[in-house]
Amino acid sequence: MSFDREYSVHKTLTKDLVHKKLSGVCGGIARHYNLPRLAVRVGAIVALLMFPVATGVAYLVATMLIPNKA
Question: In the chain, what are the domain boundaries?
Fold first, then answer.
């Protein structure tokens, strides 16, 4: 007995190249989780002010690893 599940929505995390400010990471995260882009960007700035090294490294890694929208 096998169960083949078909999901109507296949969401993958990609960078948003249309609404990008720097590299599109925050826009892609906002689109993936259905959040306002401004809220994600403000959260990223707050995190950058509180934890500059960790946030900077995480943003650079995300820029390199998250694919562009094809």
Answer: 25-65
